[in-house]
Structure formats: C-alpha cells, structure tokens
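Supplementary Methods, section 5.1.

A reviewer requested that the exact input to the structure prediction be made available. We therefore reproduce it here, unchanged from the version used in the analyses.
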Amino acid sequence: MSGFQGTILSFVAVALEIYSYLMIAYVLLSWLPGARDSFIGQMLARLVEPYLAPFRKLIPPIGGMIDISPIVAFFAFKFVTIGILTVLGWIL
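The structure derived from this sequence is encoded token-by-token as follows.
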C-alpha cells in the first residue's frame, strides 16, 4: 500500500475511533446529573444522538430505567468500522 492510500486509511480509522470515544463520553455524561445540559453535553448530543436514536427506537429500556441501546449501538459501530476499514483496504 502506497503512502497516500495508507494515509487515507489511517485518517478514516482515526476518525471512526474518535467517534467511538465521543459515544462513550456521551453515555458517561448520562451518569452525571445535569451534565448533558452543559455546552459539552449539548455538543456531544448533536454529534452522537443521530446515530443512537434508531437504536433507542428499536430497544426499549429494561425495567423502564436501564437503557442498553448505546451498548448495542457501540458494538454495531465497531462491526461497521471493521467492515469500512476492510473494504477501504481492498479498494486502496
């Protein structure tokens, strides 16, 4: 793989990894009262909620309180990340 293709693949891998960290940070903010109302919480919500929303519609909270949809969304994102990087590796 030449330098340019490796750079593209590395950039995509890093971008997807950063997004996964943003998801983790957003979920951890839910454990702190009022943290999602902060500037950082609102910024993370704008970035992460569009991805999490379909999972929340499909998976109801357990006992009305425990929301496991972010866990399922995170694992799905990891599988999609592997798929994207594999396809890009084939193409590039």
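The first helix runs from residue 3 to 29. These observations are discussed further in the main text.
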